[in-house]
Amino acid sequence: MQIYKVGGAVRDRLLGRPVTDIDWVVVGASAEEMVAKGFRPVGADFPVFLHPKSGEEYALARTERKSGRGYGGFTFHASPEVTLEEDLIRRDLTINAMAEDAQGVLTDPYNGQKDLEDRLLRHVSPAFAEDPLRVLRVARFAARYASLGFSVAPDTLELMRQLSQSGELQALTAERSWKEISRALMEDQPQIFVQVLRDCGALAVLMPEVDALFGVPQPPAHHPEIDTGLHTLSVLQQAALHRQPLNVRWACLLHDLGKGLTPKEEWPRHIGHEYTGMELIKEVNERFKTPRECQELALLVGQYHTHGHKALELKASTLLELLQSFDVFRRPQRFEEFIAACEMDARGRLGLESRPYPQADYLRGAATTARAVAVQPLLEKGFKGPELGEALRLERLRALKAYKEQHAP
Ligand code: CTP
């Protein structure tokens, strides 16, 4: 049996990027031989094994034939006769279809090195279409390597377009799609991920609510970039520049979905888009079964981002309601993430990227002020039950009025 390093490990070493996990391909071995050597099989009929010591993945060289839709629809053909070249040709991109033996000798039958030099994300063969998830993978790689000058080869984009139109993307499970989406959002240039999906028509299938924002105008005085789709991309870009966590980036992507529903007659204004967007945000969250902290923050940011921008003009009572909606007394972190998303929204406007955002500190100060109101004195005065709650609310309101007086008279 011969063992080769494959995929991302070879690609990233050649690019001079850190290699985190290593995948191996095994040629000339059977499943029984692997088990006899102490490898542990992953799943019942998937030809992948874990190394007894390192835990790294070793896959038997295989050819793949498609028998149905979705992940469960694959049948694998793995046997000791499958050659390295036959295995590599069914992989997604040429830059991912190189192998390296123990001596460091490279096998590169599909010119992955040339495409690395030319900065091209190119599919290896028509077998690309065997797994529609690859549409998302290519967009994710485009986001990751954009700063190195990579782009998607025109033929590959065309193939991605055909796959998007074929209806195959709908068959992807929520879990597989979300894994790609969440990883892509955490790349340095997540806006490129969305842009590439849009370019090949996949965005219209996966997130038509986001796709619908392109071509929708906003008032030029507040939004010099005008287009809501472009604004969304810029907000995402700012979120990455400011190293925001996944839930903030997800909230940034979805915050303006309501603008896609505004009747044309009302353009470029979008009164009430915060509320019309809620249902759409909920649907997208459910479609990809996103983690709870992503769901929650996206909904809250969708509903309240305009409050964030108008923070200094809000009445003390509205400010208190906002803080209560975020349960800021028990969950201070979530309010911080809301503030971050609002700030990214403000910075994601053409030419206004470095404009100060005093709302952030003002909101933080308001939260600190409200949280500093002590319960003990009210208990000592004999308040209990609902009266205690009301007394606390009034104390907080008083404190916020004083805060507003001082900081935003
Ligand atoms: N692969 C593929 N099609 C997929 C998934 C994986 O062809 N849908 C192949 C590619 O050759 C890829 C390798 O399997 O390089 C390993 O896949 P994975 O570990 O998911 O990705 P990496 O390429 O290692 O990239 P990353 O750095 O994102 O982990």
Record keyword descriptors for this entry.
single chain, alpha+beta, 7-stranded mixed beta sheet, 19 helices, binds cytidine-5'-triphosphate
Write a structural description:
Among the domains are: 1-118, Beta Polymerase, domain 2, CATH 3.30.460.10; 371-406. The chain is built from 19 helices and 11 strands. It is elongated. With 409 residues, it is an alpha+beta fold. The strands form 3 sheets. A 7-stranded mixed sheet has the order 3-4-5-2-1-8-9. The protein has helices spanning 8-15, 31-36, 84-88, 112-118, 133-145, 154-165, 174-185, 190-199, 202-206, 208-211, 228-241, 246-254, 273-287, 292-309, 316-325, 332-347, 359-371, 376-380, 385-407, and strands at residues 2-6, 23-27, 40-41, 48-50, 57-60, 62-66, 74-78, 99-100, 106-107, 120-121, 151-152. The structure holds cytidine-5'-triphosphate. Residues 7-8, 23, 91-92, 96-97, 131, 133-134, 137 line the site of cytidine-5'-triphosphate.
